[in-house]
Amino acid sequence: MFALLSGHDIIPLFTNAFAKKLKYHRLTNIGVQLKPHYECPGRPSKEELPQRYTYHLQGTLALDEEAVALQRNQAGRFILATNLLDDELWPNEIILQEYKNQQSYERGFRFLKDPLFFAYRMFVKLPQRVAALAMIMGLCLLVYSIGQRQLRSSLSEAIETIPNQR
Questions:
Q1: Is 2 inside a domain boundary?
Q2: Buried residues in 64-90 as b, exposed as e (16+ CB within 10 A)
Q3: Structural domain span for residue 104
Q4: What whole-number distance in Å separates Cα of residue 128 and Cα of residue 1?
Q5: Which of 26, 23, 12 is nearest to 57 (CA)?
Q6: Torsion over CA: 79, 82, 88, 90 (sign)
Q7: How far apart are CA 117 and CA 55, in angstroms?
Q8: Could you give the residue ranges of the DSSP H alpha helices within the chain?
Q9: Is residue 104 a contact partner of residue 141, using CB atoms and an 8 Å limit?
């Protein structure tokens, strides 16, 4: 046995099922648009009755601020100490972003941990030589980073990419 549902009866059925899947959003301004379908294509005459109707659900997806705030409270916290005290020049968001960008710089020094790197075999006695070796490595990384930046900016200007080297 089948029951005919009107457009307003359909709204709770579909929106409840869909809304359960949403974590950080909610549906607002939910409505139903009734669309008639005619047998022949083109503009129907005034006397022609629709062959069938379809219902189109419409709504607005809005951010659920309470769910987002709850998730933000449960997320990890960062404690960053800095001597950059100008809040206008260095807001918390920028300091956090700079902290997170450190991994791109540290990636350049990962070769020091590589067992294939020959520097671990070197025996450097004097602190001046250790400092000189660190300075040379830093300069090499600087030149490498400048070259990488130049390549990336040239590629973005030309709207090109480099194929994966794997």
A1: no
A2: eeeeeeeeeeeeeeeeeeeeeeeeeee
A3: 78-109
A4: 91
A5: 12
A6: negative
A7: 67
A8: 7-21, 65-74, 92-100, 102-106, 127-158
A9: no
Domain assignment present for residue 115? The answer is no
- Is it the case that residue 63 has pLDDT exceeding 70? yes
Instruction: Name which of 60, 62, 10 is nearest 34 in CA terms.
Output: 10
pTM: 0.37
Over residues 108-123, the pLDDT tens digits come to: 667 666 666 555 456 6
Res. 157 pLDDT band, cuts 50 70 90: very high
Residue bearing the bigger pLDDT, 117 or 124: 124
- 82 and 65 in one domain? no
Are 35 and 83 members of one domain? no
Closest of 20, 24, 27 to residue 71, by C-alpha: 24
Q: Do 134 and 92 have their domain in common?
A: no
